[in-house]
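dude i think i finally got it to work??
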Amino acid sequence: MRGTAAYRRISLALFLAGFATFSLLYCVQPLLPEFARAFGISPAESALALSLTTGFLALAIVAAGAFSQALGRRGLMFGSMASAAILNIGAALSPDWHILLVARACEGLLLGGVPAVAMAYLAEEIDPRHLGKAMGLYVAGTAFGGMAGRVGMGVLTELTSWRGALGALGALDLAAGIGFLLLLPRSRNFVPVAGFQPGTHLRIWAGHLRHPGLLRLFAIGFILPSMFVTLFNYAGFRLSEAPYDLNQTQISLIFLVYGFGMVASSAAGGLADRFGRAPLLALGLALLIAGVALTLLQALSGIIAGILLVTIGFFTGHSVASGWVGRLAGSAKGHAASLYLLFYYLGSSLIGSAGGWFWAHGGWPSVAALTGLLALTGLGLLASMRRAGPMNGPMNG
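look at this
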């Protein structure tokens, strides 16, 4: 129940889980030029330090959701966080590039044990009336972790080295994992399923994919990060060119808008509990469209304002959609959460990469058109859910 000591402990523990997972995941993004210089590799090769991690994470998420049904939520999340943090320290000590890549790929596999299981834990343990707020705090932790992993690493690298920065973050996230374990209460409503039965899991996943409401939410989960990652990927290219000519440090400061994402995700969860999920999800998608439109302006202030609105819209939408999945999933919440996050990471990977073709052939207007169309598609999916009504579960509860 919201306001109780248990609720506060769960919220803080899941905030730490979100922070650790996403800071470990994205910490190498600002270090890619350092990797290229240190190991004598091309920029494209250096990007493998991030793409391998996210790729293996997407594969691991589905399996983690299934295994957590047998292994339990709390222990699996802690083991994933602690092991990944230790691997990050190992990556800092890697004597060559290929060992670093192996460490980063293994991090992705291990981190898959956190996002889907965290969503399932919250859906099982938090009163449905207060689930949106709790999910929003978890998403706020992911936003803070993403910001710390991108912006903070640049500062640490200047003070020490890229190895020192990676090692320090690994140690910090190991401490966050221990704090998570100490804070998070044991599951009260989780019912373990003995053994691993592939047929059972496949039937549950297939059932979720046949659920009209969940399928639309999975599609919206594909769309939200597709827009966000694509805009952030190619905004840097645009701002590094004339007439802006921003340097890499100035461009990296754009990630400070994640702070607004933290506030938005937490606030959106609470507002969804009060006013309903559909209106808040529609607001998030509308903010995304408005933000994309502002980035078409030539003034740097207009572009930054657009990126800010995109960030608020993304974190609002993701907070609401991820909480809604748990509400509609019934008893197999871990399976539903894993499918949502599978779509989520596939969207960021596939559309984030495809956006490069739009940038190369049509410049920023083409990128804006792609992302704007995705947001409109999301609004159409949400409208179809509202028309479907009761078969999708509570629309406002």
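The CA atoms of residues 211 and 392 lie 8 Å apart.
im so relieved honestly
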